[in-house]
Write a structure and sequence with these properties.
With 361 residues, the chain is α+β, with helices and mostly antiparallel strands. It is built from 10 helices and 13 strands. It has a 6-stranded mixed sheet with strand order 3-8-9-7-5-6, with helices on one face. Strands 1-2-4 form a 3-stranded antiparallel sheet, with no helix packed on it. It starts with a strand and ends in a 6-residue tail after the last helix.
């Protein structure tokens, strides 16, 4: 950490290209006999691969001021653009902050989802937008043709409309919007490297807060929540309920076109692979499940105690960018003790991590 010439410290950040639909799902679709379906998946894979390469080549480590405490009057600054089924970003502005809803439901859902994300971070954690300093929230909808994904590109949100056969409009799930925007929060805080266990933690943190944003917006307790990521995103006829399940990793879908959900719930079934940046979308099921176990053990609103512990670790300055699951687990126990002293929180955290096979003591 350095300073910016004054008293305020700054941190370095490296933006990454993060998508909600993992490559292993698109790989299955690209091999399907239905050429239209396979072509949509292949086009999406090629696009995402090119974007990841471009992001690695052009990413510059930049200095960003550490977030200060947000004021109660902080407000989001949202702008929604219509990409017009092209890939030139951001597209044509179609809705600005404070304007009334229009006829395009996709635009309205994107606007609402950005607001729901802003609200959770402000009201639960006193964070003013993604960077903690009021960053404007921009999103582009109707991206490309039959684009089967949504992503955070380091600067803004982008949503495809889906192909209509496997995936529907990617603005339909508020947890997907919260997931992708949380990649921005991670970018501005712990800056977890997008590979191996640190990459899986990067994905898991986004799943955790994506789920919390959904729970907060619906007023659900931990026991009432479905703990699904991307529920409602699969088109009718697809055998599955979502992209991932935090409650039961490995059970979200089992479909001849998508394949079977490969996420493990414990370290016993940790997947070693060179694909997907070392399995970042697969092994994230392990810390996801640990959070679910902690949140349901503590009960009540998951964004309060369990979410606060995860947020404290993400923003506390001690989480290394190349952290392992064990590193993260130990920090959650320490954060629980620091905030709640010798209460049930730290013991519940220890037990949750032990249940997924991660040493946290």
């Amino acid at each position: 950490m350095t300073t910016n010439g004054g008293s305020e410290p700054v941190i370095n950040r490296t933006p990454v290209f993060c998508t909600i639909v993992p490559p292993h799902i698109l790989d299955h679709l690209a091999a399907h006999d239905d050429r239209a379906l396979a072509d949509s998946a292949l086009r999406t894979l090629q696009h995402d691969s090119a974007q990841r390469t471009r992001r690695r080549v052009t990413a510059v480590r930049t200095a960003t001021a550490v977030a200060g405490p947000a004021t109660a009057t902080a407000q989001p600054r949202r702008t929604i653009y219509d990409a017009g089924h092209r890939t030139d970003l951001p597209g044509t502005e179609v809705r600005a902050e404070g304007t009334e809803p229009g006829r395009d439901a996709t635009v309205n859902r994107a606007y609402t989802g950005l607001g729901a994300t802003f609200d959770l971070y402000l009201k639960a954690y006193e964070r003013d937008s993604i960077d903690g300093n009021g960053l404007p929230l921009n999103a582009s909808v109707h991206y490309d043709v039959n684009y089967d994904n949504a992503f955070w590109n380091g600067d803004q949100m982008v949503f495809g409309d889906g192909d209509g056969e496997i995936f529907v409009d990617f603005t339909t799930s508020v947890d997907v919007i919260g997931h992708e925007l949380t990649h921005g929060v991670t970018q501005y805080t712990a800056n977890l490297e997008y590979y191996g266990q640190s990459g899986a933690l990067n994905e898991s943190v986004s799943d955790v807060f994506g789920s919390l944003i959904k729970q907060y917006s619906l007023g659900q307790t931990a026991d009432q929540a479905d703990w699904l990521i991307g529920e409602g995103l699969l088109a009718p006829g697809v055998h599955g309920v979502a992209l991932r399940s935090m409650k039961a990793p490995g059970t979200a879908y089992d479909d001849t076109r998508l394949g079977k959900d490969p996420q493990p719930a414990t370290m016993q079934h940790y997947v070693k692979t060179s694909r997907d940046n070392g399995g970042v979308h697969i092994n994230s099921g392990i810390p996801n499940h640990a959070f679910y176990l902690l949140a349901t053990a503590l009960g009540g609103n998951a964004w309060e105690r369990a979410g606060q512990i995860w947020y404290d670790v993400l923003t506390g300055g001690e989480l290394r960018s190349d952290a392992t699951f064990a590193d993260f687990a130990k920090l959650t126990v320490a954060a629980a003790r620091a905030r709640y002293q010798a209460g049930e929180e730290s013991e519940a955290a220890l037990k949750a991590w032990a249940q997924v096979g991660v040493q946290a003591s």
